[in-house]
Every structure is written in structure tokens, then in C-alpha cells.
Specification:
The chain is an alpha/beta fold and 538 residues long. The chain contains 22 helices and 15 strands. A five-stranded parallel beta sheet has the order 10-11-14-9-15.
Length: 538
């Protein structure tokens, strides 16, 4: 039995259906109120064939933009329904948090995951001396047999998805649910982004919904170093101008955050002034043109009835943020240049230009000038995008900020775990500062934040454990590896630090055992960009 469908204006919000058959339903129910002002969300408490049949029948007369499911249910639906399916995924942080809870129950723990083993477990098990058994399953019968096998082997606690926990409890074992509220929120965010890209209505003059607003501002640019102070001053100055801005910076240095801050400080910050972001490397080349510029009905096979407004129209009156602009195909660069010059956009298959008033902010982690010299990026487009340029400092150029950022990130991560920081946390961070500042931080602030989430989990599992340099190294052995380039402060007249040697895409992919998701995450690029670079040998 499914819940009653909410009465909403379907033309005003994306439509999202959540599909689950276990205790994941409770998590969906708890998170849904946070998003019901952004989308029409309906829970379907069905699974597998029953869910697929129900969705297909309703799609014949109703609209659904995105389905959210998890695990084997999501995999089942992806190949059986025409609507896009977002798979809610348990993060490495979820896994470690669940193991910390399981360890409080027993030291004999089993982890059962769908299809693939979880790579985050080895370090946790080694550090805490856990007897950990990992198993995978495909069908429900597989899962039931695996639970029985682990019980016979003396396992007392099972970590897994809702259906796995149900089977474990049926077998008389204790269970720890794997998914967190943060993972479900990420699934909803991904669903909203997908709905935004695929369901912008044409010809109605409608403003984008509230998820297309800049959520971060000047106060989110943390750090008291001279480099950060100069950055904040530049943000305020650039916000006064309607000119294009090119933000250059390494992966994880906060390029979108800076773009949002410029928008928030500008006259375009009103409630009806959207901030629309698109990653030019995350959308297939065949779709990017339609997503940016829109298309008319019948423009190509599969074009939507009534046409489709592009992101330039969606951002009209506000700001369009083009992330990873260096990944834009040459074939689209000419069209982008024309839009910037003429201040009007022509939809694919259209004959009537649509006037727009959009400020464009673009960002890249690559050397665009080098790409211009190589013929991979148009010189005229580069100069049109870079009327104003902003180079973000890397974390290794902000040594005074590292310890305060680590402390703040650790406190946030502990709060998310309902754990209290040590009373002497500031002193402990200070003792670890030489270790933190000696590291190169190739992933910049994002890497520091992720590392502190990892540290928080271990501290929450062992509340009496002090945060010492030795403990930090045991949790994050990477801190003892890469040497630090000589730090400099941007604009201080010193020669910038040489970037670390670039590892080829093929080498990174090989290091991660062919797992493209992990390789792309390590490189700070999308799977689409990874595929392009593999194809071109870049």
C-alpha cells in the first residue's frame, strides 16, 4: 500500500518518488520535510517487480522526474523503468560510523553489501583490532544464506541496508543500519539537480525554484591568512561589476563557494535572482548543448514536447556558474561566445533569439592559457570569460589557516556524530599543527574537511583517546608521505609553489583497480571527464 499522493501544482515543482521496502522508508520520511518546499515528493513503499510495475503504470498518465531508491532495489529499477533513478549510496563516513556503533555491541561484526565489497573497512578493522567479515549479495536468497553463514561463524552483529538488517534480526542477530541522514540528503540533492537539468519548462517565463539560489556567502570563506583576506576583498570588489569572472584554483579550493559569495554580495542577490550552476565536464557532450541553450520541439530525436528552456534562460536576471569550463567541447565554445557577445540565446532547432541578462562566472582547475596555446580552447572565448580573474590560494599557501580550519571541521564532524569535542581540543590541534602544515594537501580544503570527518569517527568511537600526532598518523597515514612544496602567499611577490607532478589518468585508474568513481574523485573530475581523457590519452 502506498501513501496518498500529495496535492501540488506539478508545473511548479519537480516530482520525485522515493522507493523503499524497509526501514529506509523511515529515513526518507524524516528527510522529506526538508525538501517538500522544493519538490513534490511521494513515498512508494514497494520493491523490485512490484515497484517497477507500479511506476510504469503511473507514468502512462502521470509525470515523475526522478526516482530515489537504494541498493539492490535501485539497481533493479534502473533497468526496468524509463524515469531516471538516483541510487542513495552509503558513504565511507556512513560505513565507519555504522562500524563504530556495531563495535559497541560486539567485536564480532559482519558487513553485507550489495554486489561489491566496501573498500573503507580495512583501515578501521586494523586500527581497532576488529574481527570483521565482509560478504556481498545479489538476490534476497543470497542475502538470507549469507546471514545464516555468518551466524554459524559466530558473528553477532550485522551491518547493512534495511533488508539485510531485517534478515539479521529474523536470524536472532543484532543489526546496524548503514545509511545516514546525510546520505539521503545527498540523494535528494542529486535528484533535484537532475530534475533541474532535465525539466526546465519552456515558454512560461517561470523563475527557477529555490534550489537555484546561492547558499554560501562571504562568511563561509574561512581563514584569517593574508591570502584569504585578499580573496574576500576581491569578492566584494568583483561583486559590484556585471563583468564575467574566471575563477582559477586547484581541486577542492572552493571555486563554487567563491562564485556563490560573489553572487550573494552583488545586486543580483534578490530572492528572484537565481544562481544556476552546471559542471561542464559532468554532462555528456551530446546533452550539454541542449542543457545550456535549450531546444525547440522536434529539434532532434527525443526532443521534448513543447521544447526545453536551457540554463541560460533559467539563470536570466541572475548568475550562471560554469564549473570546469576547460572541459567544454570546442564545438560548443563558439556558441557560448556568441551568447556572451550578443546577450541572446538561440535554442537548438530554433529561429527566434531569446534576450537574456545573465552574469557568467566560470571556473577551472586547469591552465586555460596553455589550452589556448594547444588549440584546445578558443582564445577569444578565454578573453571574454576572463574580464575579471581570481586565482584561489591553495591550502599550502595558507599555512596559518590550516590548524583553525582543522579544528572547526573536526568540531562540525563531531557534532554530526552527537559527540562532544575534548575540552583541550585546541591544544591538541596545536600539537598536531606541525604534522598538518607539513603535508601538501593536494585536495585542499575539501581534503582537510574529509580527513577531519574520518578523525571524528575514530574519536567518537574512543572518547578517551587524545588527539596526538601519533594517533593522527595512525588514522591518516597519508600525512607522512607527500612532501610539501615551498609555500607562498598569492600576490606577495614570491614565485608560486610548483604544482605536484601530474599523474596520468590511466595510472590513477590502475592504482584504484579500474574503479572509475574512485579515480575520478581522486582527480577532482567527473566520470564523464575521466572517460574523455582516457579516450584522448590526456
Amino acid at each position: 500500500m502506498t501513501s496518498p499522493r500529495p496535492a501540488v501544482d506539478a508545473t511548479d515543482k519537480p516530482v520525485i518518488w522515493t522507493v523503499s521496502v524497509s526501514r529506509l522508508s523511515e529515513l526518507f520520511r524524516d528527510i522529506t520535510p526538508e525538501y517538500d518546499h522544493l519538490a513534490a515528493i511521494e513515498p512508494l513503499q514497494l520493491g523490485f517487480d512490484e515497484a517497477a510495475k507500479h511506476i510504469r503504470e503511473r507514468l502512462a498518465s502521470e509525470r515523475c522526474d526522478v526516482v530515489i531508491a537504494a541498493g539492490s532495489n535501485a539497481a533493479w529499477l534502473k533497468s526496468r523503468v524509463s524515469v531516471p533513478v538516483i541510487a542513495a549510496k552509503a558513504s565511507g563516513f556512513d560505513v565507519l560510523k555504522a562500524l563504530a556503533r556495531a563495535r559497541r555491541m560486539s567485536s564480532r561484526i559482519g558487513v553485507i553489501s550489495y554486489q561489491a565489497l566496501l573498500p573503507e573497512l580495512g583501515e578501521f578493522a586494523a586500527t581497532f583490532g576488529l574481527e570483521l567479515a565482509q560478504r556481498t549479495y545479489v538476490t534476497r536468497d543470497d542475502a538470507r544464506a549469507t546471514v545464516h553463514e555468518l551466524k554459524l561463524a559466530g558473528i553477532e552483529v550485522i551491518v547493512g541496508a534495511g533488508s539485510i538488517i531485517d534478515l539479521a534480526e529474523e536470524a536472532g542477530l543484532r543489526g546496524v543500519f548503514l545509511y545516514s541522514a546525510a546520505s539521503i540528503r545527498q540523494a535528494f540533492d542529486d535528484a533535484l539537480e537532475l530534475a533541474r537539468l532535465t525539466r526546465l519548462e519552456a515558454g512560461r517565463g517561470r523563475r527557477p525554484s529555490t534550489e537555484q539560489r546561492a547558499r554560501r556567502g562571504l562568511n563561509d570563506l574561512r581563514g584569517e591568512s593574508p591570502a584569504m583576506e585578499r580573496l574576500r576583498q576581491s569578492v566584494v570588489l568583483y561583486a559590484r561589476s556585471p563583468s564575467t569572472v574566471l575563477i582559477e584554483g586547484e581541486t577542492g579550493s572552493g571555486k563554487e563557494l567563491v562564485a556563490q559569495a560573489i553572487h550573494r554580495e552583488s545586486p543580483r542577490r534578490g530572492a528572484d535572482r537565481p544562481f544556476v550552476a552546471v559542471n561542464c565536464g559532468a554532462i555528456a557532450e551530446s546533452l550539454l548543448e541542449s542543457e545550456l541553450f535549450g531546444h525547440e520541439e522536434g529539434a532532434f530525436t527525443g526532443a521534448r514536447r513543447g521544447g526545453h528552456a536551457g540554463l541560460f534562460e533559467a539563470a536570466n536576471g541572475g548568475t550562471l556558474f560554469l564549473d570546469e569550463i576547460g572541459e567544454m567541447p570546442l564545438s560548443l565554445q563558439t556558441r557560448l561566445l556568441r551568447v556572451l557577445e550578443e546577450r541572446e540565446v538561440m535554442r537548438v532547432g530554433g529561429t527566434r533569439p531569446v534576450p537574456i541578462a545573465v552574469r557568467v562566472i566560470s571556473a577551472t582547475h586547469c591552465d586555460l592559457e596553455a589550452r589556448v596555446r594547444e588549440g584546445r580552447f578558443r582564445a577569444d572565448l578565454f578573453y571574454r570569460l576572463a574580464v575579471l580573474r581570481l586565482a584561489l590560494p591553495s591550502l599550502r599557501e595558507r599555512l596559518p589557516d590550516i590548524a583553525p580550519l582543522a579544528e572547526w571541521s573536526l568540531k562540525q564532524a563531531l557534532a554530526a556524530l552527537d559527540a562532544r569535542p575534548h575540552p583541550n581540543l585546541a591544544a591538541e590541534i596545536k600539537a598536531c599543527a606541525p604534522l598538518l602544515t607539513a603535508y601538501a594537501w593536494p585536495g585542499n580544503v575539501r581534503e582537510l574537511r574529509n580527513l577531519m570527518e574520518r578523525v571524528a569517527l575514530f574519536l567518537a568511537a574512543e572518547p578517551l583517546q587524545a588527539l596526538t600526532p601519533a594517533f593522527l598518523l595512525s588514522v591518516a597515514p597519508e600525512l607522512a608521505r607527500a612532501p610539501t612544496p615551498t609555500p607562498t602567499l598569492a600576490g606577495a611577490g614570491a614565485t608560486p609553489a610548483a604544482p605536484p607532478a601530474r599523474e596520468s589518468v590511466a595510472a590513477v585508474l590502475a592504482r584504484f583497480g579500474g574503479q572509475r568513481d574512485l579515480a575520478a574523485q581522486h582527480l577532482g573530475i567527473s566520470r564523464t571527464t575521466l572517460w574523455r581523457r582516457l579516450k584522448t590519452g590526456a
